[in-house]
Amino acid sequence: MRPVAVVGMGKTAFGAFPDRDLRSLAVEAGEKCLKNAHAALSQIDAFFLGNFAGPSFTGQNHLAPYISTALGLRDIPATRIEAACASSGSAFFHAYNGVAGGVYDAVLVVGAEKMTSQSTPKVTEILAGAGDCAGEVKAGSTFASLFAMIACRHMYQFGTTRQHLAAVAVKNHANGALNPDAQMRKMITMEQAMAGKPIADPLNLYDCSLISDGAAAVLLAPAERAGEFTDKPVRVLGIAQASDFVALDQKPDITTFPAVRRASEKAYGMAGIGPADVQLAELHDCFTIAEIIAMEDLGFVGRGEGGPYTLEGHTARSGERPVNTSGGLKSKGHPVGATGVAQICDLVLQMRCEAGGRQVPRHSLGLAQNLGGSGASCVVTILGTV
Amino acid sequence: MSEETGTIYTETVVHSAAEAFAKDAPYQIAIVTLDSGGRVTGRILGERVSIEDRVARVETREGVPFFRKVM
Fold first, then answer.
1. B5-69 architecture in CATH?
2. pLDDT for A104-133, tens place per residue?
3. Cross-chain residue pair A249–B15, CB shorter than 8 Å
4. CB atoms near residue A304 (< 10 Å)
5. Are residues A102 and A129 in the same domain?
6. Catalytic residue among A286, A334, A345, A363
7. CB distance from A276 to chain B under 8 Å?
8. Pairwise CB contact (< 8 Å): A125 & B13
């Protein structure tokens, strides 16, 4: 396997864009990325699309060539990858393997989702399709309710509180307020975060990520050729994907995600680092409890310590280990299929010192964690400029 | 169907439901650890339940178990 670098990135703003369709969002991100990498279409060897539910949200199937040809790409393999909310993390992982293994040189990875053309109950139903439709979904589970049951158990086992959950939302909104591409660019108070409209107890509106449209793209190339595209390459030091049961009730302990543990152990091993070395992270805060558990499963803190660690401010921009300086899924937005690649883009911005008001001082080693469903898929990526 | 009993492993009251269940909201769902082994996700009828509460299956609708709290 040869070393691989991210040599370009591009993304759309995240939000509700009634006049934009899935393809135009994906094309905008892809074109921005190619321009950012000074790459010609003729240099691209393969196209991977991360998209969760384009066919359900928009009715359009066969999305990868639909988008790659609109970008002007011809003849090359164009493949869509679906892994629920980890779709584009997984697309990135497969693109990485293609470059590292020497099959391809330059590979364009786009993540995209168009969600806001459907009503909230319909979106809730489509998202629930990432759960077990023969069991939990038939019983009336939504994704918020699955994570609510996870939060309920985490509170019972470890004493995690509503205040801990709210601290995640307040922190991520404070970051998103500084992100020009974020969907919800406003600060919120602890009082607001504690008193949101109930969604699935104990989670309220401020514990839930947003329904969003958006796309993000990155270009991968062999590290030895990175100079042809950029003077600010970011190396992929470690990456792994892991899987687990789709149904929450099949997991022996729902307060931890084995797929996150497994993927991070492999990624740390590949990068030759440990959790203590990670300077900043983009974590999959689809719900506030998910960020807390991610920090525990990644080894940033011990089990049950994620809530207090957040409340004490250690994951704020000024803290010892900033988490979700982009605003996270909570404030930046969560166009499901775009999220994994968007996390990579946000780390790259920090590592290139291009994160504007969100820039943190220690940014040479970062981690992205992209989760699918209630933990059935996870991709962990470690990036570095060291 | 013979009565099945178990213990609440976790639960939530759903306020914002998927389209097909919107008319039922708010409703409570739970993961129940069955005395016979294994876990199942079901709906709760009647009184709200908490972790460690004992429940019994009172009916099954289209494959979904419905439980009720027992003392």
1. Beta Barrel (2.40)
2. 999 999 999 999 999 999 999 999 999 999
3. no
4. 16
5. no
6. A334
7. no
8. no
pLDDT tens digits along A131-163: 999 999 999 999 999 999 999 999 999 999 999
First to last CA, chain B: 21
What amino acid is encoded at A74 in this protein?
R
So what's the pLDDT on residue B3?
A: 61
pLDDT tens figures, A270-303: 999 999 999 999 999 999 999 999 999 999 999 9
Q: Where are the domains of chain B?
A: 5-69
Total tally of structural domains belonging to chain A: 2
Report in angstroms the alpha-carbon separations of A368 from A46, A89, A194, A330, B65: 23, 9, 27, 15, 39
Spell out the residues 6+ positions from residue A190 whose beta carbon is closer than 8 angstroms to its own: A163, A166, A167, A170
Q: What is the ipTM of this complex?
A: 0.97
CATH number at residue A230: 3.40.47.10
What integer is the mean pLDDT of A357-382? 98
Closest CA to A30 of A214, A192, A186: A214
Q: Exposed/middle/buried for A258, CB within 10 Å: 0-12, 13-18, 19+? A: middle
* B41 contacts A136? CB cut-off 8 A: yes
Nearest CA in chain A to B64: A139
CA A115/CA A210 separation, integer angstroms: 10
Q: Which domain holds residue A286?
A: 122-208+236-384
Entry pTM: 0.98
Q: Is the pLDDT of residue A222 over 90?
A: yes
Residues A150, A161 within the same domain: yes
Closest residue of chain B to A135, computed from CA coordinates: B41
Average pLDDT over residues A348-352: 98
Residues A255, A172, single domain; the answer is yes
Q: What is the pLDDT of residue B1?
A: 41
| Overall residue count recorded for chain B in this entry | 71
A residues 230..269 contacting B (CB < 8 A): 247-250, 254
Q: Quickly list DSSP for A313-337.
A: TTTSTTSSS-B-TT-HHHHT---GG
